[in-house]
Amino acid sequence: MGSPPPPPTTAIPIAPRTARRWAVVALVGLNAGVGWGLVRRGYHWPLDVLGSWCLSVLLLSGVAWSVRRALSVSGPPREAGRGPRLPRASPAPASPDR
Fold first, then answer.
1. Is residue 42 part of a domain?
2. Residue 96 belongs to some domain of the structure
3. What is the pLDDT of residues 28-67, one digit of tens each?
4. Which residue range forms the structural domain that includes residue 41?
5. CA torsion, points 65, 67, 73, 79, in degrees to nearest 10?
6. Terminal CA-to-CA distance of the chain, rounded, Å?
7. Cys staple from 49: which of 35, 53, 58, 89, with CB 3.0 to 4.6 Å?
8. What is the Cα–Cα distance from 4 to 77, expressed in whole angstroms?
9. Nearest 5 degrees, angle CA 67-CA 73-CA 58?
10. Residue 97 belongs to a domain
């Protein structure tokens, strides 16, 4: 029996690092294109689009921080077949003697 593998370095490892980087670049480009299109067509003011980007960064950063904190507090998953230890029930109260 060897030691358990180290925990992953990211919250949800779904793809290799380079694939994640390309996905982030593509999504940022898509978001910038949609924002530019909304301003160009006159649906929004530039400050509206900029404000929504800032709010999105703030909210997504908070979610990422919360997930990382929750994963670091809970620790690695337990071994298969071993669930959490349940508290023992307290003994039943004694019946009064008559």
1. yes
2. no
3. 999 999 999 999 999 999 999 999 999 999 999 999 899 8
4. 17-73
5. -150
6. 59
7. 35
8. 11
9. 30
10. no
